[in-house]
């Protein structure tokens, strides 16, 4: 008997209120949306995923919020109390009759996937095997298939989020590499002429590494898009398997479950790119000629609530809510330098240790008396380290830009050239440039700023 005939026979066994209006078959994992209509969860998931307009009910066209997969329930006890066994779905046939005992085969042997009558199930051949009534075995199998479907859909949604994440990096990667090359070019003329060859090698390696990472990012996106298609396909196959007759489903389910499990184990993860750290010979020696001692002013107690809130928002992923905290908590320790700078060249170092989150740099003097200091404000020149999940990310302000380089630990140098409008941040341990602000125009006093979160 073909699947098409089996499907129509199955539908005839159920009242119309138990039929999904999308697939025109009995419900698979039914869910009720806001307008009150009920559909198969797989049917609704696939239909709404392909929708280019606001999601709406397929029956009454009422706008409905996108379904939260966690709210989906398996409601077979309430929705399908009249589900019948495969015996009522299939016509009488010699192959469902035991030739030896001339009774219907009502039991399924889990060991060799065969149908048995009650007498055969007690025979010596099957005495050590596990047997279940066909309907019970089929229901257990369907529940297992639904579990795999939920897991597949969850992985597919995760894969889609990962595509968006890497695509976002992919779009700005060339610009980031070009911007970083511009910063490196600006740094090398400050050292001796004999370092020109070192600069050329640095830029060549940086450009080559940037192209390699760019190709990997593009490949990462391509693999995740391909995996999304595979996950959708296996999801549909699991749905079709649920609709098969009990016996056919029990005998065929093994391969698709194995493929489902294997596929979920190989879902590609988003790439977190990072450029190598390259030391610049002579840079620290040059900067040490302008070293000053920066002390902290204990009289300035401004905690800058808005700045801390911005920092917390950076730490949160788009699909996770932010947990409210007390902004005055002792885990936040903003500090201002006692000195202000209005001219000249100045270099100092700050120990951030192994802190997960910190901010260092310079700000306009007037910010010491304000509480509306935001990371997108003007006249703040800061370097930030933010921990997101188990990864560390670097940002600079004015404007807010990400830096895909290794997180510095320990001492970080800060260099100010007031007249030339330059502020640079240095990884002291590796004698390498983290980032710099070029071509700024300072016409106001600048005061050092330090904020360190907990380890």
From TrEMBL:
Any one of the GO CC terms: cytoplasm
Keyword Zinc-finger: yes
Keywords carried by this UniProt record: Metal-binding, Zinc, Zinc-finger
GO biological-process terms attached to the record: innate immune response; regulation of gene expression
An example molecular function term from Gene Ontology annotations: zinc ion binding
Domain B30.2/SPRY: 273-455
Residues annotated as domain RING-type: 20-61
Matching Pfam families: SPRY (PF00622), zf-RING_UBOX (PF13445)
B box-type domain sequence ranges: 93-134
The protein's name in its UniProt record: Tripartite motif containing 77
Gene behind the chain: TRIM77
């Amino acid at each position: 008997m073909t699947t098409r005939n089996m499907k129509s026979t199955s539908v005839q066994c159920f009242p119309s209120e138990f039929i999904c209006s999308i697939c025109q078959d009995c419900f698979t994992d039914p869910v009720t949306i806001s307008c009150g209509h009920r559909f198969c969860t797989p049917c609704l998931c696939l239909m709404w995923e392909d929708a280019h307009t606001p999601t709406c009910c397929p029956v009454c066209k009422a706008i409905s919020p996108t379904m939260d997969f966690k709210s989906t329930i398996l409601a077979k006890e309430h929705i399908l109390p009249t589900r019948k066994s495969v015996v009522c779905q299939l016509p009488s046939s010699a192959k469902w009759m035991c030739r030896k005992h001339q009774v219907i085969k009502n039991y399924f042997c889990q060991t060799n996937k065969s149908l048995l009558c009650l007498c055969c199930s007690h025979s010596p051949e099957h005495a050590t095997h596990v047997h279940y009534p066909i309907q019970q075995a089929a229901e257990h199998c369907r529940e297992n298939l639904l579990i795999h479907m939920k897991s597949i859909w969850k992985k597919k949604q995760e894969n889609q989020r990962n595509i968006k994440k890497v695509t976002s990096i992919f779009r700005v990667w060339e610009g980031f590499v070009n911007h970083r090359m511009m910063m490196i070019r600006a740094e090398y003329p400050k050292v001796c002429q004999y370092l020109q060859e070192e600069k050329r090698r640095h830029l060549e390696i940086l450009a080559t590494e940037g192209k390699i990472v760019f190709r990997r990012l593009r490949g990462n996106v391509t693999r995740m898009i391909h995996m999304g298609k595979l996950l959708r396909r296996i999801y549909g196959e699991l749905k079709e398997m649920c609709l098969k007759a009990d016996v056919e489903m029990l005998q065929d389910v093994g391969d698709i479950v194995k493929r489902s499990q294997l596929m979920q184990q190989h879902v590609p993860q988003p790439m977190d790119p990072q450029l190598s750290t390259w030391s610049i010979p002579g840079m620290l020696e040059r900067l040490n000629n302008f070293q000053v001692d920066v002390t902290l002013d204990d009289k300035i107690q401004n905690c800058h609530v808005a700045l801390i809130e911005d920092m917390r928002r950076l730490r949160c992923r788009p699909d996770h809510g932010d947990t409210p905290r007390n902004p005055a908590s002792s885990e936040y320790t903003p500090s201002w330098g006692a000195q202000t700078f209005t001219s000249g060249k100045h270099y100092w170092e700050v120990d951030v240790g192994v802190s997960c989150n910190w901010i260092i740099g310079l700000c306009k003097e007037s910010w010491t008396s304000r509480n509306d200091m935001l990371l997108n404000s003007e006249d703040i020149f800061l370097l930030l380290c933010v921990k997101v999940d188990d990864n560390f990310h670097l940002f600079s302000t004015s404007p807010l830009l990400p830096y895909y380089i290794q997180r510095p630990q320990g001492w970080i140098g800060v260099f100010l050239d007031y007249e030339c409008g330059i502020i640079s941040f240095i990884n002291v341990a590796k004698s390498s440039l983290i980032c710099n602000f070029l071509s700024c125009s300072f016409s106001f006093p600048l005061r050092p700023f330090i904020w360190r979160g907990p380890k």
